[in-house]
Write a structure and sequence with these properties.
Udp-n-acetylmuramoylalanyl-d-glutamate--2,6- Diaminopimelate Ligase, Chain: A, domain 1; 2 domains; about 15% helix; 38 strands; homotrimer; 10-stranded parallel sheet; flat; UDP N-Acetylglucosamine Acyltransferase, domain 1; about 350 residues; 4 helices; alpha/beta
């Protein structure tokens, strides 16, 4: 696309050569052929150093640029609009079941549903109106998928899993695997046994939930592992059996929630954090990156960090100790010399 | 199912309305339609607050309940029995190879084996009697699967992988991927090279092993990466090349074992713990959640915590320091004032 | 294979019985039937304790062995050569598209390309000369795969993903999933909203990159998530949207890089480390296992450890504090007694 065409599309004014634009990118990542943007004069150095072929700038920009520019009202918004032009077109998922899919005759498929190639849907499952089930998905017996939910390729839903409306389940997600539960001990003859505890429950996902690639959510031992509405889960997250996430919470990449724990409304569990089993995290609490939470958090502290998790102040004190310690040590040395 | 029918099935006595029961759940998770249970009067508040439609209680319960109750001898056991009634029925995996599976003619398939739809089994593989290989599995050349082992959908076994008898391999497990090994350096002309070290070994899984969803176990550089009998591995665990887990151990979710490390019998590696390469963890040692183990543990300490891992006492001392430090600091201040 | 045949193949001399050899393994892992090796007399105890059936030893070895031996010039090199004999043969991936694959007619397939069974390739995709696309892979619309790249089974590439030449993408890798991005807030009526931010960019992988099993790399919000040439990524790694890894770096198992962060050339991010979003790691910096990096690292410290990440010296000081503290405490006690 020509820069001049972009300028026209965005309601802006081109200054400089009418170059070809093939993609959008931030100022630092941009290469030849990219359109970038800057709204704030304090980033002038990034503009000066960019390799973009054209930069979107505000009307009153007076710092120059190393390439053609397009002046617009709101460079951020204009770049988002342009980005949509250059984004890979969203694949069309037309209604219908691909002939290579293996769908049990008893499956109930709603209006306008797309079922992709080489997908397996077992008996008794129900797919709601307007749902998209992409290629190579496995949907086990008796699963229920809500209307307008999108299941990306190579997801597996074990038997009995329930997914709400307007959910997005990304590639490689595993819902309903057996929870981790064993009885161990020694028999009378002294030999060790490890017995599997049957995992008889299901996974239930509320409306508007998004689940990132390769995340795993185990079925309950009894009852349900529950992910409440509008919860947004990132990639490679582990959710144990019988966990209850009330809703409107975020679980960031590689975090893990052990069995039977309850996460309140509006919580944010940051990347690589771990939360022990059988505890409760109060509504609105944030657990910082890599934190480890061994016991319930009642909400009196809104943000915890560290292992074991503590308030920001305590965490800071602990991590700053070495420096404070050196000072104290020299104080003591001084005193001792005086006392001699 | 009617509460009265459940009472009859469980050998108990119904008190209150004969409501409909559709599932089981813990007292706190329970909703309308659920059966719950309580055996201990100390949880009376949970009983009073439950939303269950019926609660299983012991014969001598005298604290009341906000819903119909069924009195039984052992509420826990009764609830487990009831849970089985409401659990999603275990899918029947009848013997036979689904016509959509792509199975090489040279594959040896035992008696009573189930091979699901769209599964690929390559040449020379052997599937033991009574094994279940679910839908969309990939079994590479020359793999051997033991009798009665269950492989869930979308597992991949790279060439040469050996799995024992009565194992359970959950969705998305990757066995036999190349270990991470490269030679780096600079050529005489100063340029950098990174060369892949061939990964010539295999993965061997003992009898009775269970492996959770999306866990990855790499093939050995030479020889075998070995997971000994009755080891129970949770979801999203990483096991590096040439690791040896002797047996009867547990690796909890998101833990990682680096290459060539040996884990003794009866160890427990808790969630998100990390264990360095080329070390040994003695029999029976437990590594706490998020711990990082840089060197061998000889078993003189049975439970380690923290990074670098240390005894519970040392870990406690370190995390309690800020508080102890404040006290000491004020002591020093006092002394200094006296000395002036 | 007979030990004598092996000796002849390796140009060595057999001493002892001509036993059967079926595999290679390290001295400690070896079992009956295995060939092992030792070049250094300081490992004589491992040789004495090995269960290998034959050991490769240097010509001047005079410490004996509990089994037949083969004397060779260089035992390490000889064992590597022998290991290749016993390794599972690399599966042949002959050129051609398996009839069960679902490949859109518009897909451009190069010379000598292998496409395995039950793989899906959507419209507009391009597969370079000599590439291997194994079974059950999903390649979305408009993806481009470079020449001689190998994609293992059950990988998914969402639409628009670009992979360079001579890359290796292991089982279960997810490229191009939506980045994690939401706008949250409260509406005027006080109700909470969580809106998905469209993820309009792509993932671009440079030449010679290797990506381990079940690793996830998200598509950019705008522009590209970029993994530069010769980067080697291990299993279960998370790479957020708009991350830029310049090249020649290693990301070890279960590490995570949050959105928009830049990793310089020649960096090494060790296992389970986490790196915050929107920061820069300078060329050549190493981030230790389980470290957490909250802010940019300019390269003045070459190796960081701990959370928050610090130099080795500071990390050591912090983890050694409890011991140093005890000493200081008793000093203070002594002083106080003197002052009384």
């Amino acid at each position: 696309m020509k820069a001049s065409e972009l300028a026209a599309f965005l309601g802006g004014t081109l200054e400089g050569d009418d170059v070809d634009i093939i993609a959008c990118a931030g100022l630092e990542e941009a290469r030849s052929g990219d359109l970038s943007f800057c709204k704030d004069p304090k980033h002038v150095k990034l503009v000066q150093g960019t390799k973009a072929s054209t930069v979107l700038l505000p009307h009153d920009w007076d710092k120059g640029a190393p390439c053609p520019i397009i002046r617009v009202q709101d460079p951020n918004r204009a770049c988002m609009a342009a980005a949509k032009l250059f984004a890979p077109p969203e694949p069309v998922r037309a209604p219908g079941v691909h002939p290579s899919a293996v769908v049990d005759p008893s499956v109930k498929i709603g209006e306008g549903v797309h079922v992709g190639p080489l997908t397996v849907i077992e008996k008794g499952a129900e797919i709601g109106d307007g749902a998209v089930v992409d290629a190579q998905v496995f949907i086990g017996e008796g699963c229920k998928i809500g209307a307008k939910t999108h299941i990306y390729p190579q997801v597996t839903l074990r038997e009995g899993t329930i997914v709400g409306r307007e959910c997005i389940i990304h590639c490689g997600v595993r819902l309903g695997g057996d929870g981790y539960g064993f009885n161990n001990g020694r028999r009378e003859d002294g030999s060790v046994y490890i017995e599997k505890i049957p995992q008889l429950g299901i996974v239930e996902i509320g409306d508007g939930v998004e689940i990132g690639s390769n995340t795993t959510i185990d079925r309950a031992r009894i009852g349900r592992t529950y992910i409440g509405p509008m919860t947004k889960i990132d990639n490679l997250v582990q959710v144990g059996h019988n966990v209850k996430v009330k809703g409107y919470s975020g679980l960031i990449a590689q975090s893990g929630i052990a069995g039977s724990t309850e996460i309140g409304y509006g919580c944010l569990i940051w990347a690589q954090a771990g939360i022990s089993g059988h505890i409760k995290i109060a509504d609105g609490v944030q657990v910082g990156p890599q934190a480890g939470v061994p016991q319930s958090l009642d909400g009196s502290v809104k943000y915890v960090l560290g292992t074991p998790a503590e308030s920001m102040r305590d965490f800071g004190a602990r991590t700053l100790l070495p420096r404070m310690f050196s000072k104290l040590k020299s104080d003591v040395k001084e005193i001792k010399q005086k006392l001699r």
